[in-house]
Write a structure and sequence with these properties.
single chain; alpha/beta; TIM Barrel; 3 domains; 8-stranded mixed β-sheet; 20 strands; globular
C-alpha cells in the first residue's frame, strides 16, 4: 500500500512536468539498484593445497626470507622456508604460483576502524557508528557490521584483510570486535567477538587556532570532574561484579570481561597528561589497557614500557597534537617508541581511509623506523595488541593462511600493487567499484 501511495504522489508531480523531481527519483532508483546488486560474493573455502615460490617473504616478526616457499592447505600455513635449502614435493600442491621478484606479507590488520559501520560520511542514513549517551559499554559494534559494504573491497585491494570495528560517541563508546573482511554476514565475519571496551579519556587542555576568539592553549576547567565521574562509573561497575543481582544492569554486565582481563580497555588519549592519568586509572582498578591515539606517547615512553602498555598510534600522516610541537613529530614518533621498547601498531581514521593504512608505516620508515619493524607494526604487533597473535599476524606454520602477494613495496603508494590475497586460505576477489568505474570510463574515453 505504501508503494502505491508513493507512486500516486509521484504521478501527480510528473504530470506537473517537474523534471527536477524526475531526475531525483531516477537517482534514488539507481542508488537502490546499485546497492542491491553490487555485492561481491564471499570466497569459497580453500579446496586444494597452494604453493607460492621464490617471492621475498616478510614474515611479520622481523624476519625476511628471499626466494621463499610458502605453502598452505585447508586455510592453514603448512610450509614457510627458503626454497633453496628445503626439499619441496611440488606434486603435493594443486596450484603453484611462481612469484619471483614479488613480495609476500601477512595480511594487514586495521585497528580502531569504522569499516562496515559507515558507508558515506555525508549521508546520515548510512552511518551506524555513533550512539547517544555518555556511558555505553553494552553497545556491540559487531551486530551492526555490514558485510555488503562497497567500501570493504577498496580496502582489501591494498592488503587489509582483518579489522577491528569500533563504535563511537560518548565517554564509553561501546565494545569492539575483530572481523574478517570477507563474509556473508556478521556472524561469519566475527574473528574475535567483543575484544574490548573503548573509553574516550577527557582532554586536560583545549587547543584553538586563529578562528577562535582566544587562540592558543587553555585549561579544561572540568577535567578533574570528568575524570572523577569516569572513575566512579568503573568503580561502581567493579563493585557490581561481586555477588548475584536479581535485576541486571546491562552496562555493568558488559564490563565483566575487563575486570577478569578477558577483555581490554582501549583508552583513547593523546596528550601526555592524559596518558599518565590513564595509566594511574588502570593501575588503581587493575585493568589491562591499550592506548589509542598516543600523539604524545613518546614523552611518556618509559612509563608505558614499565607498565607494559601498548599503543595503537593515530595516523602518522597528520599534523601534531598542537602547534608547539615539531611539524614532523607524528612521523618520528614510531621510531622513538621502537627505540624505547614500547609495543605499538599503526592505525588510520574512519572507514574508507583504511586503504592508506600501509602508507602510514611507510611515512614512519622514511623517518627512521626499520622497514621490517614497520611491517611488524601492521601485522604481528597489531595481532598481539588485539589478542589474536596465536592464529594470525605472521607467516608461521600452523597459523591462518592470511597473506598478500604484492608486485612492489606494500609501504610505497607508488608501487603497492596487491596481486593476490588470501584470508584463511580463501582467495579474495580484489576487484572493487572504483576499479570498475576506472575500466568503464577508460573504455569510454579511449574510443
Amino acid at each position: 500500500m505504501f508503494y502505491e501511495v508513493v507512486r500516486g504522489e509521484l504521478k501527480v508531480i510528473f504530470e506537473q512536468e517537474n523534471t527536477t523531481m524526475k531526475a531525483i527519483f531516477s537517482l534514488i532508483l539507481t542508488a537502490i539498484v546499485s546497492v542491491a546488486f553490487a555485492q561481491q560474493t564471499p570466497a569459497e573455502p580453500q579446496k586444494g593445497a597452494i604453493l607460492i615460490l621464490n617471492a621475498t617473504a616478510h614474515l611479520g616478526n622481523g624476519k625476511v626470507i628471499e626466494n621463499s616457499a610458502i605453502g598452505f592447505q585447508d586455510g592453514k600455513l603448512t610450509l614457510v622456508g627458503d626454497a633453496r635449502t628445503i626439499r619441496i614435493d611440488k606434486s603435493a600442491y594443486e596450484r603453484t604460483i611462481v612469484a619471483e621478484g614479488k613480495h609476500v606479507y601477512p595480511g594487514l590488520i586495521a585497528p580502531n576502524t569504522q569499516i562496515g559501520l559507515k558507508e558515506i560520511d555525508a549521508v546520515r542514513s548510512t552511518r551506524d557508528n555513533y550512539e547517544v549517551g555518555e556511558f555505553n559499554p553494552n553497545i556491540r559494534s559487531l551486530i551492526a557490521y555490514n558485510t555488503d559494504s562497497k567500501v570493504t573491497p577498496t580496502i582489501r585491494s591494498n592488503g587489509v584483510m582483518l579489522a577491528q570495528i569500533v563504535p563511537e560517541g560518548g565517554r564509553v563508546t561501546g565494545t569492539s570486535s575483530i572481523v574478517s573482511l570477507d563474509a556473508w554476514n556478521w556472524e561469519d565475519a566475527a574473528y574475535r567477538a567483543d575484544d574490548g571496551v573503548h573509553l574516550n579519556w577527557p582532554r586536560p587542555y583545549k587547543f584553538s587556532g586563529f578562528w577562535s576568539a582566544k587562540p592558543g592553549i587553555s585549561k579544561n576547567e572540568k577535567y578533574a570532574e570528568q575524570v572523577a565521574k569516569t572513575r566512579a562509573f568503573f568503580e561502581e561497575a567493579k563493585a557490581y561484579q561481586v555477588g548475584n543481582h536479581q535485576e541486571k544492569n546491562l552496562k555493568f554486565e558488559a564490563l565483566k570481561g575487563i575486570f577478569d582481563k578477558s577483555q581490554t580497555v582501549f583508552i583513547h588519549a593523546g596528550l601526555s597528561k592524559a596518558l599518565m592519568d590513564a595509566v594511574d586509572f588502570a593501575k588503581a582498578l587493575d585493568l589491562k589497557i591499550v592506548i589509542v591515539g598516543g600523539g604524545e606517547s613518546y614523552m611518556v615512553a618509559n612509563l608505558l614500557k614499565e607498565n607494559n602498555i601498548p599503543v595503537i598510534l593515530a595516523k602518522t600522516q597528520r599534523l601534531p597534537e598542537h602547534q608547539d610541537l615539531d611539524v614532523d613529530m607524528p612521523y618520528k614518533t614510531p621510531a622513538l617508541l621502537q627505540k624505547a621498547g614500547v609495543l605499538f601498531c599503526f592505525s588510520e581514521n574512519g572507514a574508507w581511509e583504511q586503504r592508506t593504512l600501509p602508507f602510514q608505516a611507510g611515512q614512519a620508515v622514511s623517518y627512521g623506523l626499520d622497514y621490517e619493524a614497520g611491517i611488524q607494526a601492521l601485522t604481528l604487533n597489531t595481532a598481539k595488541i588485539l589478542g589474536i597473535d596465536k592464529t594470525t599476524g605472521s607467516l608461521e606454520t600452523g597459523k591462518d593462511a592470511t597473506l598478500i602477494l604484492v608486485a612492489g613495496d606494500v609501504l610505497d603508494m607508488r608501487t603497492c600493487k596487491v596481486e593476490s590475497a588470501f584470508i584463511q586460505g580463501k582467495e579474495i576477489d580484489l576487484d572493487n567499484k572504483q576499479k570498475a568505474l576506472y575500466r568503464k570510463f577508460q573504455a569510454k574515453y579511449n574510443e
